[in-house]
Amino acid sequence: MDVPFSAKAVVLPRSTQDVSNILKICHDHSQPVVMHGGLTGLAGGTEVSANEIVISLEKMKAIEDIDEKSRTITVEAGVILEEVHEAVLSKGLIFPLNFGAKGSAQIGGIVSTNAGGLRVFRYGMMRNLVLGLEVVLADGTIINSLKKIIKDNSAYDLKHMFIGSEGTLGVVTKAVLRLMEAPRSRNSAFVAFNEYEKVVSFLKYMDKGLAGTLSGFELIWDKAYEGLSSSKSSVKPPLPYGHQYYVLLESLGSHPEADRLAMEQLLSDALEMGNILDAVLAQSESDHRWFWTLREDVQPLLHYSAYEQLFDISLPTGLIGKILDTIEKEVTEISGVEHCFIFGHIADGNVHLVIGKNSDDQILTKMVNEAVYQPLKAIGGSVSAEHGIGVHKKQYLSYSRSLEEIELMKTLKKTLDPNNILNPGKIFI
Ligand SMILES: Cc1cc2nc3c(=O)[nH]c(=O)nc-3n(C[C@H](O)[C@H](O)[C@H](O)COP(=O)(O)OP(=O)(O)OC[C@H]3O[C@@H](n4cnc5c(N)ncnc54)[C@H](O)[C@@H]3O)c2cc1C
Q: How far is the CA of 42 from the centre of ligand 1 (A)?
C-alpha cells in the first residue's frame, strides 16, 4: 500500500555539482538524507522520516552520449530504464536489463540496488552492465570514473563498492552502461511439467540445444500460474491448468528462420521423449506480449488477500524444488496465511514468493519471515537475490552474511560516511 511520506524537505538537483553542494552542507550539519529514484524499490530503501531530507534525482535526466563503436550509453542517474531501451533501439543495439518496473525505475536506483530481472541468465545483473560510474560521496567529493572500457585492473574496481549499496555509501549521479547487439529473432514458449527434476534437466537441455541464445527461463508454480491468469487478471492461460510447474522460456538470436526451427525441434523432441508434458510456442508479437505479461505483471497475485509479504530469495537451482516444497508447507500451515504464490528466475536460482495473509499482525509477519528465511542459512542461500535489504530485511542480513562480512561492511560505511547521513538506518540494524 502506498503511504505518503513526510520529510524536512525534498531537493531536486539538476547537476552533479548541485548534488555535491547539497551533500557538503548536509555532511557539515550531520543532516541525514534519503535518495529517491523511481520509487519502485521493494525493500523499503526509500522510507523517510520527518527529520530527513529527500534527494530526488528526477531532474537529472540527460542521455549524454551513445557511442556505437564502444557500444556504450552514458546517462544521468534520473534516466528511466525504458528511456535507455528506446534510445538505443534505432542503433541496432539493446540495453539488456529488463524487468516489470522498467517504465519507472531510474538508472541511479537500478545501480544502487544492483537490479536483475528477466535476462540475468544471459546478460548478468546491473553490476555486469556498468562500465563507468560517477558518484558523490557523503562529504560532497565527486568521484568521476565514467570510463567506457571493459577491462581495467588498475587497482581496486571502486564502482562495485557503490553498485548494490542502496544509497548508503554515495549518491550515483551518472553511469556508463554496456550495450549489446540487438537480436534479430525472438522465440518464447510456455512448457508444462509435474516434476522439478525435469525442469532442471530441461534447462540444461535447452541451454545446450540453443547454443548460447537462451535468454530467459522463468518458472511459475501451479497456484501462481492460476492466480496470474484467473478472472482477477486480464491474461488467459496459454497452457491448460492441471500441471505442477510452468516454464516460460525465451531465446534471442540472429537467424529468425533457423532459430525458430531449432526451438520447435527441441520442444518436439522433448515432448516425444516424455521430458515435457505440454508446450506452446508464441506465433506472433502479440503472443510474446501475452506470454510475458502473464509473468511480468504480478499485480493479480496481490488481489487475493488483504495483506501480503513479498520475498526475493536465492538458492542453488538444484535445491529449489525440494526446499520450496518445505517452505510452502510450513508457510501455509501458519494460522493467518491464506495463499502462497511462487515464481521466479530459476535459472539464476532466484525465487519470488507472494504470501497472502488475513492480518498484518507483527508476530504473524515474523513467523512467515522465519519460515522462508531459516532454511536458506544452511544451504548458502540469500535473503535477497535482487531487491536489496533496505529496512524490511535488515533483521535477516545475518542469515546470508557472516558477522565478519557485516563488520567489514560497517567499517566501509563509517569510513565513507562518518556522520552517517546517507540513508541512515538502512541495511544494518
Ligand atoms: C513491478 C515491479 C517489478 C520489479 N521487478 C524487479 C526485478 O525483476 N528485478 C529486480 O532486481 N528488481 C525488481 N523490482 C524492484 C525495483 O524496480 C528495483 O529495485 C529498481 O532497481 C529500483 O529503482 P528505483 O529507481 O525505483 O529506485 P528507488 O526505489 O527509488 O530506490 C531504491 C534504493 O536505491 C537508492 N537510490 C535511488 N537512487 C539512488 C541514487 N541515484 N544514488 C544512490 N542511491 C539511490 C534508494 O535510496 C533506495 O535505497 C521490481 C519492482 C516492481 C514494482
A: 7
Model confidence pLDDT, tens digit, residues 98-148: 998 999 999 999 999 999 988 999 999 999 999 999 999 999 999 999 999
What residue owns the CA closest to ligand 1's atom 11?
115
Question: Chain-wide mean pLDDT for the chain?
Answer: 96
Ligand 1 geometric centre to CA of 267 (Å): 36
Nearest residue by C-alpha to atom 20 in ligand 1: 110
Q: How many residues does the chain have?
A: 429
Which CB contacts under 8 angstroms, 24+ apart, belong to 195-200? 195/244, 195/245, 195/321, 196/245, 196/320, 196/321, 196/322, 197/321, 198/275, 198/276, 199/245, 199/247, 199/321, 199/346, 200/317, 200/318, 200/321
Instruction: Enumerate residues 6+ apart whose C-beta is below 8 A from 138.
Output: 23, 26, 27, 170, 416, 417, 418, 419, 421, 422
Q: What string of DSSP letters covers 336-371?
A: TEEEEEEEEEGGGTEEEEEEEES---HHHHHHHHHH
The total of other beta-carbon atoms located within 10 Å of residue 161's CB is 15
The whole-angstrom separation of Cα 389 and Cα 427 is 5
Query: Rounded to 5, what percent of the chain is helix, strand, coil?
Result: 35, 25, 40
Instruction: Give yes or no for residue 386 CB within 6 A of ligand 1.
Output: yes
Torsion of CA 226, 230, 236, 238, to 10 degrees: 10
For ligand 1, whether the C-beta of 77 sits within 6 Å is yes
Q: Say which residues have a Cβ less than 8 Å from residue 283's Cβ, sequence separation at least 6.
A: none
Closest protein CA for atom 44 of ligand 1: 167
Cell triple for 159: 564502482
Residue 32 has what DSSP assignment?
Answer: -
CA 36/CA 39 separation, integer angstroms: 6
Task: Give yes or no for residue 53 CB within 6 A of ligand 1.
Answer: no
For the entire predicted model, the pTM comes to: 0.95
Distance CA 423, CA 52 (A): 9
